[in-house]
Amino acid sequence: MSREVEVWSDLPDGTSLRVGQASFRTRRDGDPLMSTVFEYSRDWLDSPSGYALCPEMPLLRGPMTFATERLVPGALADSGPDHWGRTLLFAAERKAAVRERRAARSLHEGDFLLMARDATRLGALRYSVDGGETFESAPNGDVPTLVDLPRLVESTRRAVSDEPTDEDLELLTRAGTSMGGARPKATVRSEDGALHLAKLPSDEDRWDVMAWEAVALEIARRAGIPVPRSELHRISDDRSILVLERFDRDHLGRRVGYMSAHSLVEKTTTQEVDYVELVDLLGDVSDDPSADRADLFRRVVVTLLVNNVDDHMKNHGLLRVGAGWRLSPVFDVNPFPPVYTAMQSTQVRRVGEGAGRSIETLLAHASAFGMEVPGAERVVREVAEAVVQWPDIAAELGIEDPTESTVSRAFTTPAADEARALRS
Questions:
Q1: Which of 46, 96, 129, 336 is the most buried (most CB within 10 A)?
Q2: For the sheet containing 16-25, what is the strand order?
């Protein structure tokens, strides 16, 4: 069986153009996805606005088949739901099956992609089955607003406990399912209509994760790294909601193309990649390679100095700018106490002499980022000056006794010692 869908993209001028056709193929209805076949449209190929959606989808005529571990090509997968969104869509399907007195359908990657809400979909890609007249999917109801945050927290709590009501799932799916990651989150509109991402607390959190992410973002901002505008909403002494402005929409609300670093490097989730590899590939697609290489170096320093061990390739992204891509504002930067395993950590260099994840390793590979060692050391010192402000930043954000928190140990790792030696 085959499910056909047109792939469209919004352009910077606000118009839309058909990118191509995707076909999701299974043996029979309800079976797992076997392959995706994609072909660019002549309009996209001939347009000055056309570009390769990601490296594994080169701008060429003819069909491309994806039938290995990556059954959906990266650029399409980036616009669909990840773990949290799939959890909600699975739950919604089970509820619908009970109401309609039928067996729940098995859902595959293509189903998830088309079930994600169009209004809140990540990036500029959209999906249609009627020539672009309407886009998949369009559930009833408006995107929730900031006023709905308390309801979203309660609905999320029941969804995580596998006890959501129909009303919970209706609200949470209206809030969007295509934003990546496993943490509970929702897209909401501010008073001016702009889309924001609300990152919600979980009962499984061992500390105020969202408040400490706000600390890390402020450190990054003071270290000279672009960050999305954000607000921290306190809901209790140890729980917060972090509301971030969506950077895949411009100031007029128009969609901006997005590609994850996971799609850039063309690796599966089980294949490792390091920052030296990433910066090399970044230089191939960036609209300003020198600036993006230097920016990535600075981000890696922050990652090391706040012990952000959840820095896998889906937690780095690029936005379509001009004739290429630029690093998006930084996101998903979280300090972790050293006791947490580094199973998701990205090494600076994973093989060969000087492999590892340290300031020393990063400085040894400074040339890969287009930097001389003295300049790289200066950047480390600048970032370290921002990082040492973490107790004051945490206090300003309402975290009580931050130096007594378990998270405080994130700032006392060997990487911090290396940076301190450079500052002295």
A1: 336
A2: 64-66, 35-40, 16-25, 2-10, 125-128
